[in-house]
Design brief:
2 domains; binds magnesium ion; binds guanosine-5'-triphosphate; alpha/beta; 12 helices; seven-stranded parallel β-sheet; Rossmann fold; globular; about 15% strand; about 325 residues
């Protein structure tokens, strides 16, 4: 364990990859690893890029990488595709689109797979972000497809989330979905070369008026990623949002809230791990029938675990 963390400190890229695989596979020593990782010095900005399939997220990420490298910033990209169990397809596509950065040592691109992680893909992704941060990247970009629960979870952890929309795609419906306004720190209207840009911008502007009464109104950025247009503005707006987060009381409050949510989530995951192990090792464990009363069983098992399981001590594996 120590050696992996040591190697990460020494910027061994293979140790970084190995650590991410450990969190993906829910390795038994995961929490210890992450705790050690967390104690390392970090300073990365966490940026989320989300939006529907084909909106141009990878193209934007690719352009952003180029822009950030020109500013001498190092970048880790984590591509998440919850629809694919192995993310092979997503990675292949991204390899094509981010090809030019593959030999650059200041850029690391990784796609996340679900595998067996107890906390799911969202949990593993959050851990991977932290690992990239500890390694020393200046910016961690997270690309997720769509706006399902898993993406919302991931986006709650990043500093700044950009929602990518495209004109004439019915995309605007996305922003009416529950939770999306809450996480969109800025809107990117990509493919602005296609007709319908002004209409979409008007709609988004109206929506922001109604739903974001706070002191930080999300910006709307126009991009044409295929023509390198708007990327510098996008980065500027991301930085403005970072200034808000790290330079105002409201931003500070939001960061504390994010941290709280993460602690609760980790506790939930740890309790579940222990209860599950307890149940599986218990002689009566298999007695759940199709017509069992789930409420009664859940409270009985929880009570049983509290009584017998917690007193037996930990580390049963
Ligand atoms: N006309 C136009 N096409 C674009 C623009 N940006 C991206 N595209 C095209 O849109 C397609 C999808 O781009 P991607 O970057 O793969 O989109 P994505 O959101 O990463 O897609 P998934 O990861 O599959 O969800 C590609 O064919 C791009 O060339 C743009 O600004 N204008
Ligand atoms: Mg993509």
């Amino acid at each position: 364990m120590q050696s992996i963390v040591e190697r990460i400190k020494q910027r061994d890229i293979r140790a970084l990859a190995r650590a991410i695989t450990m969190v993906e596979n829910d390795h038994p020593e995961k929490l210890q690893l992450l705790s050690e990782i967390f104690s390392l010095e970090k300073h990365a900005s966490y940026i989320g890029i989300t939006g529907s399939p084909g909106a141009g997220k990878s193209s934007l990420v690719n352009r952003l990488i180029t822009h950030l490298r020109q500013e001498n910033l190092t970048v880790a990209v984590i591509a998440v595709d919850p629809t694919s169990p192995f993310s092979g397809g997503a990675l292949l596509g991204d390899r094509v689109r981010m090809n030019e950065h593959f030999t650059d040592e200041g850029v690391y691109i990784r796609s996340m797979a679900t595998r067996g992680s107890l906390g799911g893909l969202a949990r593993a992704t959050k851990d991977a972000i932290r690992i990239c941060d500890a390694y020393g990247f200046d910016v961690v970009l997270v690309e997720t497809v769509g706006v399902g629960q898993s993406e919302l979870d991931i986006m709650k952890m990043v500093d700044t989330t950009a929602l990518v929309l495209t004109p004439n795609s019915g995309d605007v419906l996305q922003i009416f979905k529950a939770g999306i306004m809450e996480i969109a720190d800025l809107f990117v209207i990509n493919k602005a070369d296609l007709p319908g840009f002004s209409k979409l911008k008007g709609l988004v502007r109206e929506l922001i008026k109604v739903t974001a009464p706070g002191d930080h109104k999300p910006a709307i950025v126009k991009t044409i990623s295929t023509e390198h247009q708007g990327i510098d503005t996008l980065w500027e707006k991301i930085k403005e949002h970072q200034d808000y987060l790290y330079g105002t009381a409201a931003g500070e409050k939001r960061r504390i809230r994010q941290q709280e949510l993460e602690v609760y989530e980790l506790i939930r995951e740890e309790i579940w791990r222990e209860v599950k192990e307890f149940m599986e090792a218990h002689p009566d464990a298999a007695h759940i029938a199709a017509d069992s009363d789930p409420y009664r069983l859940a409270s009985e098992w929880f009570a049983k675990w509290k009584k017998e399981g917690t007193s037996r001590g930990h580390g049963t594996e």
